[in-house]
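Risk register update: the risk that structure generation would not scale has been downgraded. Supporting records follow, first protein first.
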Amino acid sequence: MTWDQASAQCRSLGGHLVVVTSEEEQTYVHLFTSSHYDDSMKPVVCFWMDGKDEESENHWYWDWTGQPLEYTNWYPTEPSNTGDKENCLGTHKGGIWNDYPCYYKCHAICEKE
């Protein structure tokens, strides 16, 4: 599902896409994605998180709170904004973050406060 679809799904369940603000939370998300991933999920291998930079390029923020990302776990060459279209935050089973086009198809990771 797209980032917007994933966000809407999480909100319909009373939550939001996952917000990661610490290494401890990142470890949990990594363990979650690793344990919930299997080959039947291919070709979709990414998971949406709540981060975006649509309003101002390379100024990443959590959509749920509007707060800037302070803790990050980007892949070393990310965020790359390839083609000037990668404005939504995702992760994969390895736990590393990547910027993806918001129309890309990923799974959702929802959380409730």
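Supporting record for the second protein:
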Amino acid sequence: MNVPLPTVAVIGLGAMGARLAANLCAGGYPVVVANRSPEPVRDLVAAGASAAGSPAEAASRAEVVLVAVSDDEASAAVWLDRDTGVLAGAHRGTLAVEASTLSPRWVRNLAAAAALDGLRFLEAPMIGSRPQAEARALVHLAGGRPEVLADARAVLECSAARVHHVGDHGTAATLKLIVNASLATQVAVLAELLALARRAGLDPAESVRFLADLPVTSPAAARAAGVMTAEDFAPNFPVRLVDKDLRYLTALAEDLATETPMARAALAGYQRAGAAGHGDADLTAIAAAYW
């Protein structure tokens, strides 16, 4: 006997949320979507999803809620708004998955609020960007109870090659910020060094080819260096989101009395890039702030 797939509400149809919803539709799940702007909703309705007028309405029609938004403030609005938020519409026992990159403090607060309303909460931030989502090759870091992850795993694996349980609520958010800071600091250093190479009269493309062949250069750094020299800054990980993640990381470090001078220096570089008009460009556009 075939067990029907649960209805999944996907809320937040930006670069990642829209792709998560599309993968769920392709996987045969009943999907209901909600978003502040109507354009991505129309696209997903054409792909088989149904539309809801608010997160509350979407949650009321679903057994699983999956949220993918930009920051703590957007997450709070989606989940906690008294009239339109997920908690205003979700039924007790709903599986509530927050897949955004957020601060650990907010994730723990949200988990507590969800528990008070009888929801089964899981944080599951994503490693990867648009190409990985389209290829169903994301990595999810899961924080929460193992039995809740077990119930959510099939939904997450519609877009992910791997799902790692890393601990309780807040642990996945912490690890995701560390991952993003590792990439962001590498890219910031490369931007400085390639700018130096240019000023010294070296050919940037040749410098990148040389660096890419060295064992000290990570694959991610090699790809970023190639994008910088091509100056093709179509966004996969926008500068404005790198700025946000580094701010969350340095705030966490302050809470833990831990020094993060490299992350702070990188943050200053991305803020410089944002001030120069590159906030919506890829993080590699930090190079333009130095060239």
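The mean pLDDT is 96. On this basis the risk owner (M.S.) recommends closing the item.
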